[in-house]
Amino acid sequence: MTMNHIESQRQENIKRNREQLTQLGIYLTPSASSPPLAKGPPAKKRKLDHPLPPSRSSARIASTPAKPSYVSENEAEDWRHSRKKGSRVGPKKVKEPVIKQEAVAIAPIPAKDIESIRAGWITWESNASPPIRDDDSTFHFQDQSSFTPNKSPEELIREGCFGGSYFRPLYSRRLGITVTDDYRQLPSTWYAGLDVSQFLTSPTYDTEINKYKVSSGQSIEEWEAAGWINHTYDVRGWFQWYCRFYMGRRCEDDERQISRWRKCVGETGRWRRMLLKKYVSMGIKEVFDDGEDEEGRDVSPVMHQTCHHWAYEVRQGDLERFWNAGK
């Protein structure tokens, strides 16, 4: 059988099958104007560099207040302060932490509510027993056993905490008001004999008056922007809360603030452990009084000052336990 004969039969079979399919109504004749089918893989969809926002939005979601982030302010401390001494910096760039700005988007508080909040700052009553201080100078609060600072608010003020600027005039973006002179709500004995303009209301952070002679931490404005401030109780944040807690006030924000303290300088707190590890890495087994002994300042003044802001100071017993147990 020749190839011509085979091809002829194939064409006849195709023609016959096409006629049968046409009679059954399942054969479609290609349009002469139809473009030829493209061969090869399908075209890829272009990826948008910036996704488009949804065309519709939920009124319920839009009206929901942004949830503030209560990440510890010391989590945003400059990474250079926590980097091990002598470690090699490779070509990979280390990103500095970014402060979350969720709370900034919250709508302003109505004026009538602001007046109610302001009244709450001064009308509270002391309803807890004063703390007891043990032989290691650690404070113990009867109703909060896990909160054990070893510096009193008065000691912190007299040692220049926050560079003397903590109670400076403060404009709150959240409340839309400027807060001034609230240091007067503290017992006057805490700052008796001090220059208030230098130790409490200084417009700038003065490193010369704080105990370790360095700048540490962030401004109250940054704390507010990051959502670390609960305005209902303490417009200035952590230290103002500690002053009032020490004076006997108890409020719904206590658990949050104590939790933040534990994470920073509690038994397993990040900054406390970093500082104790620094002593061990330097082979130092005795705690110096950094306010008097020049040698003591060699052990990370920035870490010391950070812990000092959180009402904790390394004591000899802490260091010995860390040397013995490694934690």
Automatic annotation (TrEMBL):
Residues 7-19 have a biased composition (Basic and acidic residues). It comes from the Eukaryota. Residues 81-92 have a biased composition (Basic residues). Residues 1-94 are annotated as: Disordered. PANTHER family: BLL5189 PROTEIN, ZGC:113208. This is Vegetatible incompatibility protein HET-E-1. It comes from Letharia columbiana. The lineage of its organism: Eukaryota, Fungi, Dikarya, Ascomycota, Pezizomycotina.
